[in-house]
Amino acid sequence: MTEPISIRSISQEDQTQWRPLWDGYNAFYGRAGDTALPDAVTQATWARFLDPSDPVHALVAVEGSSVVGLVHYLFHRSTTRLNDVCYLQDLFTLPSHRGRGVGRHLIEAVYLAARTAGSSRVYWQTQVTNAAGRALYDKVASHSGFIVYAHEL
After folding, report:
1. CATH number at residue 124
2. Which of 12, 30, 117 is nearest to 67 (CA)?
3. pLDDT of residue 1 exceeding 60
């Protein structure tokens, strides 16, 4: 019998369990091996989660004493709204826990955090080839048809 999944804010004690999830998330998007993020980026990202003055936040999904999923999000201003909006930046669940509602619970927890902060919108992006993720996203949000462009500086 599996234990229930709970969602909570990340804590310093989660770092050793968070790191493999973070590495798995980055590998999914092609950032592994020679293309891995520099460790300085990972360390700075971790530090941001624990700094209460930073706009970047992290939640984890926990089963028993095991961290089985993560979500990172941040608030920012918008030119089309009075209140800040929430960008759900990273979402990842252990492969062994996919299809069990972990991702949905993490997204819903971000919705609650955004609502509590006074945001009127949560949004995110994913690769068009992320069929499994998109199957969930189509159930919990609407695709607005936007295409993302980026230019590295």
Report:
1. 3.40.630.30
2. 12
3. no
